[in-house]
Every structure is written in C-alpha cells, then in structure tokens.
C-alpha cells in the first residue's frame, strides 16, 4: 500500500510542482491568500474531497474532507500558504501547503481499504495572526486523532520545540508642546517608550535563559521640535512554555506602567497579534515519521535532533490533538529561513523533489498509525500525559 501511496504522488507530481510553483510566484500576505486558497481548494475538489470554506469567517481558510465508508482514525494534514512582506515565500509555505495536499492525495489512494477520514486544514496567516489559534479555540481539531505537517529547511530535523509567544503593543499618550519654546508644557510619550526599552533591558538579567523579548518603535513623533504626544512600541515576548510566558508578560507590564508613571503619560496595552502556545511534539508520532524517512533512504546521521525555531501557531493545535512538525531538507545549501537566499532556493527543482519526498513520508506515517492500533494508542496516551 505504501507503494500505491508513492506511485499516486509520482503520478501527479507534475501538477503538484506546478501548483507549488504558482503559489511561490504569486506570494500573498496573511488572510489575503486568495489565489493560493482557491487553487488548493480546486485541486482537492478535483481529487474527490469535499470543501468547507470559509471557516470561522476566515475567508481564505478551508477544511477539505474525504471519509471512507470503513471507519477509522481522523488524520489531519496542515497547509500553510501565506508569504512574508517584501520577501515573498522565504519560509517555503508554497512547499508546505503542496506537501500536505500531496500527502492527502497519496493517503486517499488506500484509505477506502484501511478505513478512516482525511482532513486537510487550510490555515492562513501563520506568520502573523495565525488562523490555527481561533480554529483550535473553536474545537475544530478536538476530534482529530493526529495532525501532521512538515516544514522545508536546509536539513532533515525531527519535530522539536517552539516558543510560546504574546505580541503586545504599548501605546503612550502624552501632551504636545513646542520643544524649544515651552517643553515644560508637554508630556513626552516618546520618553515613555524609551524608558520601557531601558526597563526591559534591565529586566533581562532576572529572566530565565529561554526568554526572548524583542520590539520596535512604530510611532515616535512627527517632528523634532514638537514634544511627541503619542508613541507606540510593539514587542514579541516569548519563552519555552505558556506559564512562564504569562509570568514574563506581567513583568514587562510592570515596566510599561513604570514608564508611564515616570513621564506622566497614559498607557494602553493590547495584543496586536494572536498568542501562540509552545509546540508539544508527540514523540511516538515523531519517531514513526523518522522511521519512514529512514525507509526512504535518508541516512540516520543526516537527521538532526529537533530544535527551537521560534514560535508557531501549530503549538495551539498540539494542545488539542497529537501533533508533529518535522523539517524536510529541500536545499543542499545552508541558508536560514526568512532570507532571500532561501526563498530563491525554495523555487528550484531540488526543492520540489524534497517537497514530494516529504509528502510521501507524511502519508506513509499516517498509514502506519491508521493500521497499527497499538501505535495510535501509545500516541494518544502520550498526548494525554503531555497536556
């Protein structure tokens, strides 16, 4: 049956590469992925999947489903297809979405015989206001037995960790005045923002080493001779787990309130993007993915231990069902994600072949879990303990 899966993906490889190339050549920002979403839904519909779209009033989100007559587990493949501002698909989401779609098509070739349901979740805006957050909160993954996706990279890497994250905006409201003639009449909102940065820098020494805090000033005044009456800073606050992230956010809030008190400004703090939980990789599911990678001819010494690569809205999914997020090698040159170099390499024939390999490994892993009740039970037991 695994041969059937592989031959099905190979049979459609030209169309799959064309789809990925089209999305790569037409990058769209989060929640604006009209072309990508439409092409993915069209392709899935052509392969016999029923389409639900939009989802939760998210216009470019979708859930595609194929249910066999024979009962069995619900398998979820995750698709991401948003691009980065100015850089385009420098994170390889055109490969991710097509990989998930190809895996679903491959698994469908055997699902009527082994039993079960295949779902493909189209999840917009992973880079910003990730749709997996509201989709998870709404319970759309709660009945899923396991969820799979793989990310393109310059190496093979096991599913690892990610950082929980809050995105906080701090707005300071002061009073404008002439900076030379009557500065004493003003209340300087920019000074409050600068004090916030200084306070956070002093705070770092008292935080655990896995914390990451980084921010920018998005508004700091209109002219040098006017006391700024309004200034804004945006920060990402991250740590290895949700409880410590919450604790760190409270400490940063104290810094922000202190800056307001020192300058006489009024403070307004708000979330400007969704909060992401840390990824809880399911090790039983991850090990099965690795075994299938080895079976495809990848040497064990080529597969790295999972690392932290930032924050993922997939972390929220991993609180709802067993989930993995391994990395697939799509380039032989070592370039980091979110760079022009990786973007260009992710559009080469080498990258598309890596995408097809990843699709086969994803589909084979799903097959193994479906036909092995003991493995599925171990995956679910681990999930229950981890959550």
From TrEMBL:
One of its GO terms (biological process) is folic acid catabolic process. Residues 173-249 form the Peptidase M20 dimerisation domain. It holds the Pfam family Peptidase_M20. GO terms for cellular component: cytoplasm. InterPro entries: Amidohydrolase, Bact_exopeptidase_dim_dom, Peptidase_M20, Peptidase_M20/M20A_hydrolases, Peptidase_M20_dimer, Xaa-Arg_dipeptidase. One of its GO terms (molecular function) is dipeptidase activity. CDD domains: M20_Acy1L2 (cd03887). Belongs to the peptidase M20A family. NCBIfam families: amidohydrolases. This is Peptidase M20 domain-containing protein 2. It comes from Paenibacillus foliorum. The lineage of its organism: Bacteria, Bacillati, Bacillota, Bacilli, Bacillales.
